[in-house]
Amino acid sequence: MILASSFLPRMLRTRTRTIFANGSVLGATNAPAASAFSPQATIDVMACNGITFTRGKRSRAGGELQQKQKIVNMLSLISPRRKQPRRIKMSYEDLLRHRTVHRAWQLIVRAKREERRLELQKQYYKMKHACDELQKASHVLYESAMEKPSPIRFPMEYRIPTLTPPRRIWDATWKRPAEEKKRKRTV
Amino acid sequence: MPRIPGAGIGVVTATRDVLRRGIRAASVTASNVLSSTLPTANVESPSPSFADLIDPATVVPDGDLARIARAMGCAVEDLIAYPNLHDPSEVSMPYITAKSFTIPAYRRTPFMDWRVKMPPATLKSRKSKLAYRHPIGLDQAFKEALGVLEADRQQKYDNLLKMHDRIDAILQHFNVSAIDDIPDHKSRGGAYLASVEIEKGRINAEINNPEIIHQFNSGNFDMKFPVYRFLARQKWEKNDRLLLMDRLESMKVIPDTLPTFYPRVDLKIRFPGTMAHWIDPGRIMSTGVTAQAPEFSIQIFEDKAKLYTIVIVDPDTPDLENDSYKTTLHYILADVKISGNEPLVDKSMARELVPYLPPHPEKNSGFHRYAVWVFEQPGGERLAVQQRQGKGPIDVDRLLERDRFDIRLFRSAHGLRAVGAHFWRNGYDSKTEGVREKFGLGPGNVYTHKRFQHYQDYRG
Questions:
Q1: pLDDT in single tens digits along all 460 residues of chain B
Q2: Strands B351-354, B368-376: parallel, antiparallel or unpaired by DSSP?
C-alpha cells in the first residue's frame, strides 16, 4: 500500500526523506560516505508534526496527535511496508555463490535438527521400554511411578508470588472481613 | 536451449584455450571435433569463455572414475570433461572434484582487496559495474560451503553405491538380470525401493553443485543426466506450465476438447516466416501466418525416446444444423520420434495421417481456438487402431474425417495418452479471403447478429 501524499488528508501530509540502501539521502546537501555494506535498516524520518511512521512507542502528547498516530498505526498494520525481508540484488555470479552457501547452511541445520530428533526419540523409547518393564515387574511401583504431580502449586488462600514486591508489603491493621449473609432464593 | 547431441556431460563450448592445451582423452577430442563445427555464437552463456571460469586451485583425486560412474549410472567417458589448466595430461571430472565447484570468478587481479576488485563479468553497463557492491563475507562463506557440500556429496555417493550393491546382491542371489524377474515379492520390493533411492540419489548428489547449476543456466547440458532433467522440469513447472494451464482453463480448451489434462511435456509451437518465435498459448494470430503448418518442439523430461502423435483441432466451427458448434480436424502427425536432447519435431521422419488445413474462420463467427494436442503412443509403437474393450466396432475411415471430428473417440481408439497441449486463436481478418482462395476452400458464411428461429428459415 502506497501512502501517496496527494491522497492523504492535509493533517497527515508530512515531509519525508527518502534514504537509499547505500546510505545516500535524496536531496541532502552533505551526502554520507558510501559504505560497502550499509546496514539495511533505513530510517523513515518524519520532519515535522511528531508522528512516527516506524513501529515504536506511541507518543502521549495531545489528543489530536494521538488520533492521527492511531490512524497511522492502523494503516501501517495493513500495509506490507517494512514487514518483508529485503530483496536480494546480486550479480549472477554472487547469486550462485549465495545459493551454494544457503544450501550448505540448510544441510547443516537439517543435520542438527535430525540429530536432535533422533536423540529425543531414543530417550523417549528408552523411557517407554523401562516403564513397560516396570509395569510387568511390579504394578504398585508402576502406579507410583506414573503419578503425576498435582497441578495445584499454592493453596487458594496464599498470595501468588510476583517478581517485584507489592507497594504495601505488610498491613498491621488488617482484619478478616466479616462473612456475607447468604442470600435466600426466592424463585 | 541448444543441445550438443552425442557429447558427454560437461563438454561445454570448447574454447580456443582448451584446444590450445591439447586434451588427450578420447571423448574430449571427439567433442572438439563436434564443437569446431558448431557455431559458438549460438550458445548464449551469461559468463565469458569457460577457460576463464575455472579456478585452478585443486588437484583431482585418482581412481574414483569407475566408482562415480557406477554411482551415477553413466559411462566413464561421460565424466571426463574439463581439462586441468596447469597440467593438460590430467583430466578432471565435473561430478566429483572440488574443482568442479567453481563458478564464474572475478578476473584475477594482483590486489585482491574488494575495493579494487573487478566487477562481475555478467554486469554489462558501466553504471551497474560502478554501483555494484559485493556482499561482504560471501567469499569465505562460499569456501566453507564447498567443504560442507563436498562431504555431503561423498556421503550421497556412498549411499548410492550401497543401493547398487544391494540390488546386485539380490539379483545374484536369485540369479536373474532384471528386478521384475525376482520371484520373492519381499526381495523384489526391496530391490525396487533401492532403485527408487538410486534415481533420487543421482539427482540429490549433484543438485547442490554450483557448477551443475551454472551449466544448466548456460544451456550446456545433456538430458541423459537425471539432475539436468530434474532442473529442466522444475524450471518449466515454475512458469510455463502454470501459464499454459491457466490459458487452457480460462479459454475453456480443456472441457471443450478433452475433458481434463495433466501436462507432462513442454510443447512449443511457432509458425515459419516472420513470426518465427515460440508463441504463448492463446495468442491471436493472423490467418496469413497460420496458413503454413507450424513447427513443434516437444521437450520431454524422461530418458527414453518415445513416439508421439500431434493433433490440431478447431472446436469452434459453427454447426448450423444443430445451432451449436462442432470440431474440425486440421492436422494429424503420427509416429513423431522425440528424445530429451532433440525436442524439435522432424516432420520428414513422421507419418502425416491428415495434411495441414490452414485456419479459415468465417466472418463474424468470432475467434476460433486451434488446439494442439500431443499424445504419447502406447508402448512406443507405431500408431494403429486398437479394439476398445467392451465396445462396438470402430469405423476406421470415420476416425480421420475432418468434419465433426471426435477427438475423444480418436484418443480411445488408438489408446493414446495426452501429455502436451497448446493453442492459438484466429479470427476472420484481412488475410482470410486470400487463404481461402489459395487453398481452394470456397467462400465462407457471413454471420449477422440477426438470429433465425430455425435453420430452414435461413436456408429459405
A1: 333 333 333 333 333 333 333 333 333 333 333 333 323 333 343 433 333 333 433 333 444 667 777 777 777 666 644 433 334 343 333 333 333 344 444 444 444 444 445 677 788 888 887 778 888 888 888 888 888 888 888 888 888 888 888 888 999 998 888 888 888 888 889 888 988 889 899 899 889 988 888 888 888 888 988 999 999 999 999 999 999 999 999 999 999 889 999 999 999 999 998 767 999 999 999 999 999 999 999 999 998 899 999 999 999 999 988 989 999 999 999 999 999 999 999 999 999 999 999 999 999 999 999 999 999 999 888 888 776 666 777 787 788 999 999 999 999 889 999 999 999 999 999 999 999 999 999 999 999 888 766 666 655 4
A2: unpaired
Per the DSSP assignment, residues forming a β-bridge with B298 are B267
- Interface check for B116 against chain A (CB to CB < 8 A): the answer is no
Instruction: Tell me, yes or no, if B203 comes closer than 8 A to chain A by beta carbon.
Output: no
Place of cell 465433426: B404
Which candidate, B244, B287, B235, places its Cα nearest to that of B262?
Answer: B244
Percentage of chain A exceeding pLDDT 90: 34
Residue B344, C-alpha cell as written in the block: 524439435
Assembly ipTM: 0.71
Which residues, in sequence order, are CB contacts of B191 under 8 Å at separation 6+?
A: B166, B167, B170, B171, B179, B182
Residues of chain B in contact with residue A100, where contact means CB-CB under 8 angstroms, are 101, 103, 142, 145-146, 149, 208, 210
Where is B328: in which H helix or E strand? strand B324-338
> Which residue type does A144 have?
S
Would you say B327 and B404 are in contact if contact means Cβ atoms under 8 Å apart? yes
Asked if B386 contacts B231 with a C-beta cutoff of 8 angstroms, the reply is: no
At B311, is the secondary structure helix, strand, or coil? strand
Say whether residue A129 is in contact with chain B using an 8 A CB cutoff. Answer: no
In chain A, residues with a C-beta closer than 8 Å to the C-beta of B119 are 91
CA distance B81 to B134: 31
Give, in degrees to the nearest 5, the angle at Cα A184 between A181 and A186. Answer: 155
Instruction: Measure in Å the smallest separation between the Cα of B123 and chain A Cα atoms.
Output: 7
| pLDDT at res. B399 | 87
The structure's pTM equals: 0.68
Interface check A99 vs B, CB under 8 A: yes
Decide if B142 touches A, using CB distance below 8 A: yes
Q: Which three cell numbers stand for residue B393?
A: 466396432
**Non-local CB neighbours of B450 within 8 Å, separated by 6+ positions:** none
Give Cα B387 to chain centroid, integer Å: 32
